[in-house]
Amino acid sequence: MPWRSRNTRTRRQASPVAICRTRPPLLLPMVSTRTCATIRLFAILLEAALSKLCKLWTNCTLRRILVTTRRKEFDALCYEGQISGPVETHEIQHAEAELGVQFPLEYADWLRTYGAVLADGFTIFGLPSAENNDPPLWQNVVSVTQQLREWKQVGAERPSLIAISEDGFGNYIYMDTLFYSESRMCVIGPDINKVFDVSIYNFFLDFASGNLNW
User: Which Gene3D superfamilies match (predicted)?
Assistant: First the structure.
């Protein structure tokens, strides 16, 4: 018999099977069929909502790009034409008082940038200075609107309308000042009365390219 030291103890390692037998069993939560169906339905609805949100974000981004592009095209046409020059806020307020209206926000901003425009394919009445408009090159929105009111021109009898352009065939293009934060364009003549709820730059871009018919 081999010699063993009294201080040495034999250590036995428990087998994996024994360890498993000594541990309590893992209790898995019981999930009902109804709960599984609810979770599946929630996942489907969440996926549909995320898909719709992505499409909405994409459409908004594309719309923003399109608006920016169209605005740049309009600005380019204006700058290629004849511009009278920016108008001060107090001049705009004086013109509004003369006509008894408040200019739509978009038109007022346009006046601050251009004043009045004579471009290729369209003209927009504004507030040109007398010094820069001799001989007359640009039309004044105040004088034209007042003159049309005196002549009882069709369309001018409505006090909210201001004449900002004409198509060369006896039809005037008005803006309805009742729409302040949005733009409503009205084409009115002896045999025409059409309304376009579009921005100034979209309207005149389409008008210059022949995409507007009335």
Answer: SMI1/KNR4-like
